[in-house]
Amino acid sequence: MSAVRCTDLAEDLGGVADGTHQLSRTERRHVEGCLRCQADLVQYRRLLRTLRTLRTDVLEPAPGLLADILASLEHAGERHAIRGVLHGRRAAYVGGLAAATAAGAAGALVLAARSRRTELAS
To answer: Range of 48's domain?
Structure first.
């Protein structure tokens, strides 16, 4: 049987850290004697602890924080509601003018093409 190398275990150490993978006896002996693999395993475990901490910090906000955020959003929404309506009407007006201009230009092109065909047919 060949000796276990660090590269052979690189992908498995993450699973070892989170408990989803178990090493064989030979692989365990290698990790016990290899500082590189031990360091990698420690880094995986630290990463998992950090992720667990972030998950609990995000899922459990401070008491009253959600109510404060919703209140500030509601207040900001009232201030910007009138501006949003006016801006929306302005955008609709400009869009309408652009559509009318495009329709007029298309109509002019159609009329010009028809009159040119009539001249060529005559």
So the answer is: 1-60
pLDDT at 122 over 90: no
d(CA 58, CA 66): 12
Residues 27 and 71 reside in one and the same domain: no
CA-closest candidate to residue 9, choices 45, 46, 22: 22
pLDDT for position 82: 47
Tokens, residue 89: 């009407």
The reply to whether 97 and 121 lie within a common domain is: yes
**DSSP string covering 98-110:** HHHHHHHHHHHHH
CA angle 40, 41, 45 (to 5 degrees): 115
